[in-house]
Amino acid sequence: MNKYIISLILISISLFSYAQPEEIKTYTLHAPNLEMKVMDYGARIQQLKFRNTDIALGFDSLDQYTLERQNFGAVVGRYIGRITGGYLKIDDNEYMLQIRHHGDCSHGGSPNFSERMWDILSHNDTTITMRYVSPDGENGFPGELTLDVTYTLTQKQDLRIDYKATTTKPTVVNIANHNFFNLTGDHASNVLEEELWLDADSFALYDMSKRVTGKLAAVKDTPFDFRTPHLIGERIDAPNIQLNVTKGYDHCYKLNTNGDLSRLAARLVDNHTDMTIEVYTTEPALQIYTANGHKGNMIGKNGKPHNRRNAVCFETMHFPDSPNNPQWPSTILRPGETFRSTTIFHFN
């Protein structure tokens, strides 16, 4: 019981010490046909232009990122997704993480890494490396975690994201970039006519409270089967219990790529613009989210509202609640170890 009390005290200190950033800085990267603006607030991608079309949702005003509390373009952690009940056990130690209104620790608590100021370690025209040091006990998580994120634009029209982390105590790490992609060029329009392909035979099931059950279901003969390309809107409103829980796609797929960075994990095609995103990753899973929660009440870039289903997120990650589901790949990081992960978005 004392461990829970200590964790709650540390959470309170973390929340009390958090302050809104006084000045946000942006850095611009360039490569053939690519231009990207990155913020030191949340290590966020504010703008991502491919052939002069901005395909990343967000805001024109930097201050708006601190007001809206959204994850547009941000690095989310220490644990993206939910940890059920905020309960974490590592070895013989139990921790009570920060929980929200749904009773779980979601996306690492609030504020998570997306709402922190990151240090710039190095940058040039094509690459930037940013660091955030998460103190021991932040939002209840054990260990001081040092996380480096490197964004690189390549000559091959790639956005490469490399993660590296170390810790002072055994902890859990599940990091992902939460960019919202819209290939139409009109951020107010939906993505229902964009075509999705996934190399995945199964996905994680939710209960009616959107908590993962620890079980995987086959995608065969369901609206979740993208092993052959389908328009996102083709089956998104089909009668299906899992779609009813999330009101659209917001599910974690088990990839068949087995961490092979050379193997294609996902592809998104806009048949009107002929623009394509290909996803490669060392991560075992991929969360697909189709912005079902957008309601048009947030105004984004160029005065465009963020309407329902106006983006696709490719969150390359481990499964939600993996610490409480030992049958899934482990997210534990120990002192002396180095967490590494790479995701590549290739644009055609």
Number of DSSP helical runs: 3
Mean pLDDT, to the nearest integer, reads 93
Radius of gyration: 19 Å
Strand order of the largest sheet: 10-11-12-13-26-22-21-16-19
Low-confidence stretches: 1-19
Question: Which series of helices and strands comes N to C?
Answer: HEEEEHEEEEEEEEEEEEEEEHEEEEEEE
Number of DSSP strands? 26
- The outline comes out as globular
Which secondary-structure class do the elements indicate? mainly beta
User: Roughly how many Å apart are the termini?
Assistant: 54 Å
Strand proportion: 35-45%
Into which percent range does the helicity of residues fall?
under 10%
Largest sheet: 9 strands, antiparallel
Can you put this structure into words, describing what you see?
The chain has 348 residues and is mainly beta. Helix content is 8%, strand content 38%. It contains three helices and 26 strands. It has a nine-stranded antiparallel beta sheet, with no helix packed on it. A five-stranded antiparallel beta sheet has the order 18-17-20-23-24. It is globular and about 55 Å long. Mean pLDDT is 93; it is low at 1-19.
Pick out its properties:
348 residues, 26 strands, disordered N terminus, 38% strand, nine-stranded antiparallel beta sheet, single chain, mainly beta
In short:
The chain is mainly beta and 348 residues long. It has helices spanning 2-17, 62-68, 241-246; strands at residues 26-31, 34-39, 45-50, 53-54, 74-76, 82-83, 87-90, 93-96, 105-106, 119-123, 127-134, 145-153, 158-167, 171-172, 176-178, 194-198, 200-206, 212-218, 230-231, 250-255, 266-270, 275-281, 285-289, 313-317, 332-333, 339-347.
